[in-house]
């Protein structure tokens, strides 16, 4: 557990429900707990909560969908990369889900904090600090496809507007898009949290079986 900062220093750590204190300026893999990630992500709303339905569409559920899409795009995707893609937005359990326009305004400071958190999270689960370029591109493509579907089905965008902003998904059939649309029905918080934990556990077990790290 990271050491207490002096009383004269601005507090840069957040206390998690697990009891860990995660230092945002210098996050340690030892202070990263899966239960904290799942708990936090299930309570962070995509689109700043501006979505239809009785429940917010959480980042936890989005992460599960993005991993599903990545596997659809690349059926032979290695288990460790599936896990990394599931965790692609994991830093948001600490810093929240800022919409893209605000991230662009924030610029380098936000990205630097996000990158440090990503490295700590990857370290906690024995993943490389940075993804290979091909996997990073795959994760981004899957993320955009999920955002495209969320925009149309949850956030009030017209298809024409989504096509213009996100780009019409390539190499994905209409049937696949229809099937994925069912996956973005917003879940209650507890269900989204459990879905994230279940997918991680499934991938972690498969990783052990194939002799992953």
TrEMBL record:
Name this protein carries in UniProt: Hydrolase
Organism from which the protein derives: Pseudovibrio ascidiaceicola
SUPFAM superfamilies per record: HD-domain/PDEase-like (SSF109604)
Matching Gene3D superfamilies: Hypothetical protein af1432 (1.10.3210.10)
Lineage top rank: taxon: Bacteria
Lineage: Bacteria, Pseudomonadati, Pseudomonadota, Alphaproteobacteria, Hyphomicrobiales
One Pfam family hit: YfbR-like
